[in-house]
Amino acid sequence: MRPPPEISVFLLSLLAPGVLYTMNNSPALQEPLVILGMGTVILGSVLLLLFLTVRHKAKVDPLFYVFAEFSFTCLVGLTNALEQDGFISGFMGFYIKMGEPHLSTAYALMMSYWEGVVHFILFLTIIHRMFSGKSYRSLGLLWAGSSIAHQIVHIPGVVIGKYGSNIRPAFWRNVPFFLAPFWAASLLFSRPREMQIITADKIAAEQKKSLLFRPIDLLLSLLLLGSMAFSVFRGFVVLDCSLDTCFTYIYQYEPYLKDPVGFPRVMMLVYLFYALPLLTVFIYGLKTPGCSWMLDWTIFFAGAMAQTQWCHIGASLHSRTPFTYRVPADKRLPVIALNALLAAAPALLALRCHTNPAYFMKPVPAGQSNSKKKKN
Fold first, then answer.
1. Which end of the chain is more exposed for a tag (fewer CB within 10 A), N or C?
2. Which residues cross the membrane (predicted)?
3. Buried-exposed string 218-240: b where 16+ CB fall within 10 A, e elsewhere
4. In sequence order, what are the beta bridge partners of 195?
5. Interval 218-232 mean pLDDT
6. Residue ranges of domains in the chain
């Protein structure tokens, strides 16, 4: 009897620490170009094993190979985080020295924990639902948002930060991991959304209410406005704004924003140029009925903000961040509260959209039953 695909992927992923241990204790495999070559061979071998695992299936979603391959790298990341924090040893020394030195930074550790726990659980859940005939589109969009946000901060942060002068060949193995989430997201967005039909009467009743008579939506709009203001402010801070307020904030509240590793600066610019426009259109979506795209993009954005804020908060407090760049002890409460709120607002918005989607749906014939399904 064959094990379920998610169990096969889980067991295959457990090989990652063994591979790292072998390479860490084999000097011949520790040259920069050899590390890149071995990484390519290992990932190719994993892909082949995955193909053999599901070859008996009549039809396999191409995204299975993306999720399963990423599952393997999740445990590589978790192994790195555990070793850098002193829980284990003997796995990643060679890779930190000759592969990607930036993976020893506090930001990279928080990123690795997120991959090794949150993404890994998401992948196994998605694969289980995929082969059980259940919808996994929303979970896939949550991962896509998280993964894309991770990559657009991680890769530019390495290039422009203090590790930009020490980029080794193994760094370029990130290129396919940068492109794959965009491809996966495009596939997921293009697939039809499944949801219960809501009668036209109920949709019409919801859509007649103004924002003032929808207190939850009004509160969410205010939270999004606050998030916009905070994103603009911190964007100005990392752009060396000369206002006294910016100077006070970066030195007395979040000195991590000027950490030379580069990740916090890139993140604030991503918020300024990408998150800010999305927050704006979400406020529009809360004010304008029938914006069905809110049901997808809020999930995508919630994943992105959760990942980036987890990394940012954790890195600004972590012992691997130099003391001068950590959040001062007497300012931790307001700084953590503001950053947590910035992560919570998109999550609450996504939850609101999916628990009561009537306001965002296009009207349907009144005679249809609530128990049926439709593609929207």
1. N
2. 32-51, 63-82, 102-127, 139-159, 171-190, 211-233, 266-286, 293-315, 335-353
3. eebbebbeebbebbebbbbbbee
4. 374
5. 97
6. 5-190, 200-360
